[in-house]
Structures are given as C-alpha cells and as structure tokens.
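From the pipeline queue, job 12 of 40. The input is one protein chain; the requested action is below.

Action: predict structure.
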Amino acid sequence: MSAFARRFFIFAFGLLTLATIVAAFLWLPPESAAQGEIVNNVGTQGRALTPAGKLMTDAVTNLPTVAPLTVDFVRSPDNFGTDGKGRFLIAVNSGFGLQFNGESKAQQTLSVIDLNQTPEPQVIQNVYFPTPNSANFGVTFSTAKDADGTFTMFVAGGFQNRIWIFKFNPNEREPISPGNKPDAELKAGFIDVDAFSDFAPSPYYNRNQAPVYPTGIALSPDNTTLYIANNLGDSLGILQDWKGARKITKVRLRRSGSSQFVYPYDVEILPETNSNRVAKVYVSLWGDARVAVVNPENPAQITKHIAVERHPTAMLLNADKSKLYVVNSDADSVSVIDTKSDRVTEKINVKLAENALGGMSPEGLALSQDEKTLYVANSHTNAVAVVALGDSSKFKVQSSNSESKIQNPKSKVAGFIPTGNYPSAIAVVQNRLFIGNGKGTGFENSSVIVNNSGRAPICRMKNFRQAKPIGAGSIIRR
C-alpha cells in the first residue's frame, strides 16, 4: 500500500473506532468514583475498565451520550460561563461515524456541552456530518461578534477539503447554526481549499478528492486570516481576507532537500505583543518528528524546524504564550518549547513507569488554571497522566567555561486518572476535567445505548435497535 493510500485509510476509517464517550471529571479522591468495575471482554482488549466519574447525559433524552472518537475540545468565545469565560465546550468527534440504523450513513459530529447546566453539564446540541461530509480536528472561533451578534465558527472539513463556516450564538437554545438531525443534509457554508493541493484529483487516491485534508486551523487575532494544516498536502495554508478576496499562500513544510512526507496536523499562532499581528506560526509535523516555525511575513522561508520526538500531534500554548507544549504520540512524551528561543527546554516522559516499554500513545493535552499541572491523555493505557510541572520561576542560565546552560527544574508525573477506553481528548474547565474516551465504555449490541460493558456495537444489521438520536457522551466526577 502506498504512503498516500495508508494516510487515506487512517482518516477514512478513523482508526476503526466505532463509538466514543466524552468524559468529564472533578479532581476528587478516588473513593468517590461512580463507576463499578467492567467485565473484561473484546471491546476493552481483555482489560478491566474502572473509570473515575460518571457519564455525561444528553439534555433531551437524559441518556448517556455517544460520539465517534472525540479528538478535541474547544471553549466558546463568549464570556457567559460562571468563570467569565465561554459557557460552552465543543467536542469534535472525528472517528468512523455514528450510525443510528441499518440504512444510516456513518456521520462524524460536533457536540455542544453547556457548562452552566445544573446540577451538571450536559450535551444540548449535536451537529451531524453524514458521509462524505467530514469534521476534523480543527475548530476555531472569531473573537469579535458579527453585525448580527453572532460569532463565526470554523471547522476543518478533512476529507472534502473544506473549511466549514457556522454561526455561533451563545444566547440561543442550540448555539450552532445551521444545525441538522442525524442523516440530514448539512447546509452550512464552506470555503473550498482544493487550491492548496499540488496534485489534481485522482480516482486512485482519496476517492477523487485532491490531496489536501485540512486538520488543525487557527485564526489571526484580527479575525481576517486562517492558518490551515494541510495534512495530505504537506503544507501550511494561509487564507487571507476570508470574507472577501480569499487570497491563498501555500507554505511547504518539508526540510530543505528532504522528500519525506511530513503530514502537518496541528497549528498554533503566536501573536506579537500588544498587537493583532502574528509573529510566528507553529505546525506539528506527524512524519518528521519536528515542529515547523513559519514567519507569516515571509512565508516562503521556514524560520526553523524544532526537533521534538516521534509523531508530534496536539500542541498547547500557555496563557502568556511563553511555552508551547507538544505531545509526541509515538514517543510517550511531551516536549516543552520556549517560544522566545524556539528550542526544547524539557522532555516529559508520560509512561506508566520510567523504564516501561513504549505504547502509551498520548494524544490530548490540557493545563490547569494555575498552570502548575499538565494533564495528558494516554490513549493506550486508558488513563490520564497528571504531570506536576517544574517551577518556571526557577529557570535560570548558568555560565561555565564560556558556555551557557539552562537549569530546568524537572517536571514529574504525580499519578494517573483511570478513564474509559482510549482517552483521546482532554480539557480543563475550572475544577472539572473533561475527557473524551475514543472507544467509550461499552454499548448494547446493535445500538447506541451505553451500558458500560466494554463491548463495541455491531452497526451493519439492517434494523438494529436504537435510542433517540443523541451525540457526544461524557463523564462527570463529583
């Protein structure tokens, strides 16, 4: 199988995930866990599941909600939350796709979690992307309201080479518009990004879609320019004046003289201090164990390739943008990059033990509000690593024999939080930790009803039993 074909296979089948659970936890002692031990079975690969917390419910059905492989959480841009930040958390669910009966198309979803719901947060809306529609890792919002009082929400369209455009109104019962129901046509607007491809569409690759596949996206502080990681195009796409002329610039991300595919995935932007201008753009490169640094004022020349470790995936900037955390999914580590010098200052090992064999597959990152703790979703160990970060105030440079050396207090893994099967995304909101379990905690056979059995449903039966159509699932610990 060619490299191109392998990449399409991975995306099209979402790592063969059939269903997922979104989970949320409160950081409380383990004796308050609500879930009992789950019997070993094929769905959990012979391992018992004892997740802390309890499943989040859908506000309409009051049933636990399900979703296809949650890959990211994004906070809404309003300030209606109890902490003065966004009231809503958007779960991006990009796996194989939900099917509600034997005639149903596989459909990826967005799930809107209302953080202000009492007594606990709930999913209040789901938006469905019936195949061949796609919702990928990247979601971002405008920071300024439009004339109608809504925010613009952008969603990476993955397979169809689209950037979806939605309206987000935090005052509405269902904030995302246009919405839809399962298997219904999605009527949202979109920007076609086929032009970022070097190749014409071919029936032999990516089902006749040009090889672009946008994943991570970011919006400039002035809300005019989109930065897009083109995973199958090996480039960063810069889309200026998205409301008007839509000028595009393609930045090739391979190192000079290299022919290796780099597979860009996530994008983070570093604004200039006290300015709406973008100083740097960081792009994680799956295939090159590096993070590319792009100067948007001179995009033809890559500023730097920062060596991290294998398969850098999600990235996260701290509040003052001084540090960039990069999770290395094939190296069981997190690289910490100083954004002033663009060099790695620390590598954090998130294995279950220092000398354990590889295979934790960390995928998601989140920082506590005080930025003293880093949470890392270790997909293949069904756990979240809790990392006590080194005190950055103690960073200093010592000179010896005319050489400068950074003295970096070492971060340490303080422990692990048990989750459902394959935690793949994570977010912190006040004292709650939201975790997306990529393969859930188990479902009744031939349905989307969660029963914590650890089993995966059979979705191909002609008329399998189902609950009312629902979306993302989650766990809240209290």
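Job complete. The domain at 3-17+68-93+103-387+420-445 is CATH 2.130.10.10 (Methylamine Dehydrogenase; Chain H).
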